[in-house]
Amino acid sequence: MARTADHEQRRRQVAHALLRSVGRRGLARTTLADVADEAGVSVGLVQSYFRTKSQLLRFGVEYMYKQGEARLLALAEGAGPASVRDWTLRASETLLPLDDERRLELTVWLEFLPVTMADPEMSRLHRTTTQQLLDAFAHAFGEGRRLGELPPSLDARAEAAALVAFVDGLTLHHLVTGGDFAEDAIRTSLATYVDRLFTAPESS
């Protein structure tokens, strides 16, 4: 068991090093040697876990997505959010680059997205993870309808997709554009979006 735990810890160490390397140099300029140097290990050790850069990238992206999933699951711990609206805002905020760790992860995410256009396995990973995120928000919105926080006619799946797209847009502009998309601004924009969703009048 200890050997397995050490093995997984080493893989996580390499994954962290990959994220830091890609965040600093960009994906195209990051090599296995860069990752090994960042992790403080030999290239041979990295290659013993990952034979190619593509395998390493898949593991790093999977690790990044699992970090995001863990943040969402953590919202259910303790007393939990007081309402569906509260959960929606807090869950959405976990997807924004609002601290150094998430900023690094989402910088790597922007580097990763073009790869999904040409790599079927990366495309599958991205689609699967996105669908899981949509499922979580759609389920929450269904609960919101049941509890009377959202109108009965609301299309939970469509609103989930719209929210994820909005959050992705905030992330992109915060990381790339800046200015009007500074941290406080995107927090306010997200809160405004969620408030409008939960206060929208029922259409006749």
UniProtKB/TrEMBL annotation:
Top-rank lineage group of the source organism: Bacteria
Q: Does the keyword Ribosomal protein apply?
A: no
Which positions does the record tag as DNA-binding? 31-50
Q: Which Pfam families match?
A: TetR_C_6, TetR_N
Name the SUPFAM superfamilies on file: Homeodomain-like, Tetracyclin repressor-like, C-terminal domain
Coiled coil ranges (UniProt) are: none
- The answer to keyword NAD applying to this record is no
Sorted keywords for this record are: DNA-binding, Repressor, Transcription, Transcription regulation
Which residues belong to any copy of the HTH tetR-type domain? 8-68
Q: Which InterPro entries has this protein been placed in?
A: BetI_C, Homeodomain-like_sf, HTH_TetR, Tet_transcr_reg_TetR-rel_C_sf
Q: What is this protein called?
A: TetR/AcrR family transcriptional regulator
